[in-house]
Amino acid sequence: MTAFDPMRAIASVRHEFGEHGGVNLSIETSSTFTVMQAGAMPELFQGMRGPEAGGCYLYGRHFNPTVLVLARQLAALEQTQAAYCTASGMAAISGVLLQACDTGDHIVASDTLYGGTWALLHDFLPTKAGIRTTFVDATQPEKVAAAVTRRTKVVYVESVSNPSLRVADVPALARVAHDAGALLVVDNTFAPVVLSPARHGADIVVHSLTKFVNGASDLVAGAVCAPRDIIDRLFDLHHGALMLLGPTMDPRAAYEIAMRLPHLGLRMREHGRRALAFAERMRDRGLRVTYPGLEDHPDHALLQRLANPGYGFGGMLTIDMGTTERANALMETLQNQEGFGYMAVSLGYADTLMSCSAASTSSELDEAGLAEAGISPGLVRLSIGYTGTIEDRWAELERGLAGVPVHA
Ligand code: PLP
After folding, report:
1. Whether residue 316 has its Cβ less than 6 Å from ligand 1
2. Are 319 and 382 a contacting pair, CB within 8 Å?
3. What residue owns the CA closest to ligand 1's atom 15?
4. Atom of ligand 1 at shortest distance to CA of 346?
5. What is the pLDDT of residues 84-96, one digit of tens each?
6. Structural domains of the chain, with CATH
7. What is the Cα–Cα distance from 359 to 151, expressed in whole angstroms?
8. Is residue 185 within 8 Å of residue 204, measured between CB atoms?
9. Can you tell me whether residue 164 is helix, strand or coil?
10. Is the CB of 88 under 6 A from ligand 1?
């Protein structure tokens, strides 16, 4: 497969000038749009004359011009025919799953997923909609194949999993999903630019744009990147899950994200450069560090094979401190004494963010779920930032680590 550069693809999308020829696109704030001929209304409501089909805009929950500019850029990023922007990552995920599955249908999902997604699949969807999920070790595609049933509509994984940092073998999983007549849905929140799952066979790529893509921890947003017919179904005015559930992206949020996309590649490269440097140094100190850029990571070769060249291995790493107490002591020292980063959930910020997964973003998982996902009570997840110099930050990290006994 030829090398792909997602930032080049985004740059090739037609530039959207502002209303008065400004270099920045305009924010279209109208929630409703004027239709010039009354006779056009029925066709607009049947989706036959949308803005992408030479028609006009209708209503903000359906299409907004500013949001549509961002959607085109995200489709280029993920190399899908189309994209649709949502109010959050969870809105994108739940919309896609409710569109793909009816009551009685079945999902096969990785057993290591973001806690909110795990709770949606494990508890919410079976209770509210009668959609069941079987969780398996998706690093072994044969286990996914064995879990498929007649009713399986979706195979669901994260490209790089939260927080265990396992890498999905997207080509192998796509074969399994397609043999079963199911869709492969990949959450690429942890690895935008680094990985392009649709180029390796994923049918739908979902994002929490809240994280690396926006990169400023100042808004919550999501996106679905998919073939045109799937996107069309999601916002079908009469039947679409996103249209009827209504998690629409605000045009002001779309504008902010569109302004930050041009430096997404630079940011990912720097997050990755620093994460690799810290991971190597921590490994050399004998710490239990997990980073897919390290050669001893079980998926390092797979990631090297699938990754777009030049953007590194991502900005996320974990350290297993053995116990909750040691994990908490490390985070408090690093934040309150050293100023190394912030004890905060989320990821992809300019500064380093640290959280203890079992007590926070994976707290939805029950004991069995935590064990299956390999999340120990002392696992500290770090989203490595790029402020300050590497050497100053490393000195802070070393001092913080020195103050806390490491192994149980
Ligand atoms: N997917 C992953 C991998 C996440 O880490 C998160 C949130 O942490 C989400 C989805 C949900 O995104 P949002 O908070 O934007 O709804």
Report:
1. no
2. yes
3. 89
4. 8
5. 999 999 999 999 9
6. 264-402 (3.90.1150.10)
7. 34
8. yes
9. coil
10. yes
